[in-house]
Amino acid sequence: MAHRALSGLLLCGVAAVFLVLLQGAQSVYIQYQGFQVQLESVKKLNDLEGQWATSPGLKTQRSQSSMCHDLALPLDLQPICASGEADSIFQALSTIAADDCELCVNVACTGCS
Q1: Disulfide engineering: 28 pairs with which of 38, 39, 90, 100, CB 3.0-4.6 Å?
Q2: Which domain holds residue 90?
Q3: 71 part of a folded domain
Q4: What is the pLDDT of residue 53?
Q5: Which of 42, 44, 11, 23 is nearest to 108 (CA)?
Q6: Any signal peptide, and if so, which residues (predicted)?
Q7: pLDDT per residue over 44-94, tens digit each?
């Protein structure tokens, strides 16, 4: 009986790992000006911008290039900071992500169904 319970637990563990891998493979990406970033990363960028906007001491410094210095900036967005056009690229990515990217309405979005 213990062997059967262990076997069932192992099967559940394998299924959970498979689902996590499948979710990663199904990620939606945005391609813009030579950069390819995950939609989830752009959503995190928008959340970070929201935090900056609601922090009284940070409101005066609220440029999107300031986001480049935030340790919470997702890794796939960091190369944009070296481009010199981070402000406009971050703004464009935010706009694209707001355009129903998960439904592939925008041609810059890939990997959605």
Answers
A1: 39
A2: 28-110
A3: yes
A4: 66
A5: 42
A6: 1-27
A7: 998 888 876 666 555 445 455 578 988 999 999 999 999 989 989 999 998
